[in-house]
């Protein structure tokens, strides 16, 4: 079999570019063409080194992992560890899907012209086959992600919360917020955010009408609630340093997907405003709390 390094190099660049483009589309993030190209070239150079080098260190798993880290950072430049890991997972899923599709197409068309050396797929196959594998792989993974997201129906987005306190109770409808990981910074108790107006049935008006004063340390007689008060810092879009007044509750009941969850030691974060424009929900519950 006669192989041409320049062809292998070009094929790898094309496939890497397609994978990175698909990753950015799935994550709904734009990546600059030049950064995408640089990452693709680095990956392609590594593939050539593996093929022509007899030194086993180049096929080492750890080195491959470091290479994928570099490719992700150069292409997307994620600013947080969470964002970096999300990009990395989607990048790997996309790569595995594309690789499987491309290999299947090559196997069915020209299996005799395929070789696998140190994890690098090589052979005398046309570039159009690589492009076809990338296109089919992109369609498959896009449909798969849409199907997974589609499973979260409108019904699955809401839950009912019952908060009993001192013989009284209030019931509200809350939305499942997958981005809500808010916790008390000291005790690490999870926080459920609820509109202030929905809490008058169980909390004293003195607390609800003096939220700013309590946060600022004004001396107000809070009675039995003094030991339950928590100050919760948070960050959100457009608000880097926000503060919520929280009240610790011993027990609440959350009904989600017709299953009751009795939760102990939850903090109610009091939101002084409206969470929903149409009034469909009055609270935010993190998915980790339900789990």
SSE arrangement:
Elements: H1 5-26, H2 33-52, H3 61-76, H4 81-109, E1 114-117, E2 120-123, H5 127-150, E3 158-165, E4 168-177, E5 191-195, H6 205-208, H7 211-215, E6 229-236, E7 239-256, E8 259-271, E9 283-286, H8 287-290
Parallel strand pairs: 4-9, 5-8
Antiparallel strand pairs: 1-2, 3-4, 3-7, 5-9, 6-7, 7-8
Helix pairs in contact: 1-2, 1-4, 1-5, 2-3, 3-4, 4-5
Would you mind describing this structure in some detail?
By secondary structure, this protein is α+β, with helices and mostly antiparallel strands. It has 2 domains: 146 residues; 136 residues, Cathepsin D, subunit A, domain 1, CATH 2.40.70. 43% of the residues lie in helices and 25% in strands. The protein has a 6-stranded mixed barrel. A two-stranded antiparallel sheet has the order 1-2. Strand 6 and strand 7 form a beta hairpin. Helix 2 runs antiparallel to helix 3 and helix 4 packs across helix 5. The model has no long low-confidence stretch (mean pLDDT 81).
């Amino acid at each position: 079999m006669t192989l041409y390094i320049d062809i292998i190099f070009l094929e790898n660049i094309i496939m890497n570019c397609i994978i990175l483009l698909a990753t950015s589309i799935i994550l709904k993030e734009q990546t600059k063409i030049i950064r995408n190209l640089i990452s693709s070239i680095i990956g392609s150079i590594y593939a050539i080194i593996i093929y022509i080098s007899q030194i086993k260190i180049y096929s080492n798993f750890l080195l491959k992992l470091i290479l994928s880290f570099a490719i992700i950072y150069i292409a997307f430049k994620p600013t947080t560890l969470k964002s970096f890991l999300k990009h990395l997972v989607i990048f790997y899923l996309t790569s595995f899907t594309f690789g499987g599709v491309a290999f299947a197409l090559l196997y069915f068309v020209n299996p005799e012209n395929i070789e696998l050396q140190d994890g690098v797929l090589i052979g005398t196959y046309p570039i159009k086959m690589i492009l076809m594998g990338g296109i089919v792989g992109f369609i498959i993974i896009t449909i798969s992600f849409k199907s997974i997201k589609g499973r979260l129906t409108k019904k699955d987005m809401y839950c009912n919360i019952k908060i009993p306190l001192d013989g009284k109770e209030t019931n509200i409808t809350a939305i499942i917020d997958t981005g809500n990981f808010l916790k008390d910074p000291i005790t690490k108790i999870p926080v459920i955010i609820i509109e202030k107006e929905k809490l008058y049935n169980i909390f004293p008006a003195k607390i609800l009408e003096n939220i700013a004063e309590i946060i600022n340390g004004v001396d107000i007689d809070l009675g039995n609630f003094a030991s339950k008060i928590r100050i919760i810092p948070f960050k959100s879009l457009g608000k880097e340093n926000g503060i919520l007044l929280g009240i610790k509750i011993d027990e609440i009941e959350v009904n989600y997907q017709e299953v009751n969850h009795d939760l102990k030691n939850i903090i109610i974060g009091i939101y002084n405003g409206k969470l929903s424009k149409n009034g469909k929900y009055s609270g935010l519950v993190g998915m980790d709390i339900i789990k």
